[in-house]
Task: inverse folding
């Protein structure tokens, strides 16, 4: 079985699923993973597993709905938290796909976004060259293990709206919204920042480092996340 870090280099958005329902044991394993999931400090988004029939525009037989406040940090937290679920589901052999266009059929207050999932026989990617992504130099001022994992993160419309700036022991992650991204400012880009933060955290852990400080500054398209890192002891 692949680790979450290894899954970064093999995952994909899955849009073709087996229609047969998942067994109760699989669904409860997913519920259990969600119940124990790590969120950003001070955040407590709520997650709910539903059948795809409860959605409009859903791309998968099941979905995890995310509920939270709608301030910028809360949306970053959802990206960060559900991206771990995306990687975990795929590491377990299921398919998953972020789905900004879908929505629950019933009006549900505080609903923010969903991650679709289900059984699939769509294979993993063979390696980094199967990913359609910007060059490292377009998203980062350094080419290293962290930037390589960040580069492969999924994002809404594959806009990859982030810029990594490394300087001694510190890493800034800026929201970099250009072109079509300007039409969709805010929300989706903030999920994307949380998503890339999860990839960054896993890559840091892989190199024996932890994030020991996170601060948020700026707002709208100037949103920036500043991380400082230290060696694990
Ligand atoms: C926040 C977010 C919302 C997304 N919404 C949709 C969607 O509504 N429909 C869809 O087909 N894919 C959606 N995607 C999937 C992206 O298109 C996909 O991640 C990107 O093209 C990169 O491809 P990959 O995930 O296969 O690496 C979304 C991804 C993210 C992160």
Result:
């Amino acid at each position: 079985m692949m680790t979450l870090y290894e899954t970064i280099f093999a995952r994909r958005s899955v849009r073709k699923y087996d229609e047969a329902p998942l067994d109760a044991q699989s669904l409860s394993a997913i519920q259990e993973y969600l119940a124990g999931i790590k969120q950003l400090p001070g955040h407590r988004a709520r997650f709910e597993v539903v059948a795809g029939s409860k959605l409009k525009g859903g791309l998968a037989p099941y979905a995890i709905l995310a509920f939270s406040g709608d301030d910028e940090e809360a949306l970053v937290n959802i990206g960060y938290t559900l991206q771990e679920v995306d990687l975990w589901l795929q590491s377990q052999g299921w398919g998953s796909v972020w789905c900004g266009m879908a929505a629950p059929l019933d009006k549900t207050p505080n609903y923010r976004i969903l991650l679709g999932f289900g059984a699939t026989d769509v294979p993993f990617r063979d390696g980094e060259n199967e990913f359609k992504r910007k060059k490292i130099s377009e998203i980062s001022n350094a080419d290293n293990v962290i930037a390589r994992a960040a580069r492969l993160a999924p994002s809404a419309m594959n806009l990859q709206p982030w810029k990594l700036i490394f300087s001694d022991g510190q890493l800034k992650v800026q929201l970099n919204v250009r072109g079509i991204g300007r039409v969709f400012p805010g929300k989706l880009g903030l999920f994307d920042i949380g998503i890339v933060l999860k990839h960054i955290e896993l890559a840091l852990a892989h190199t024996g480092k932890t994030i020991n400080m996170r601060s948020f500054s700026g707002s709208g398209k100037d949103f920036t996340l500043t991380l400082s890192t230290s060696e694990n002891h």
The pocket of flavin mononucleotide is lined by residues 12-13, 59, 97-101, 131, 154-158, 188, 191-192, 195 (CB under 6 Å). The longest strand covers residues 111-119. The chain has a mean pLDDT of 93. The radius of gyration is 17 Å.
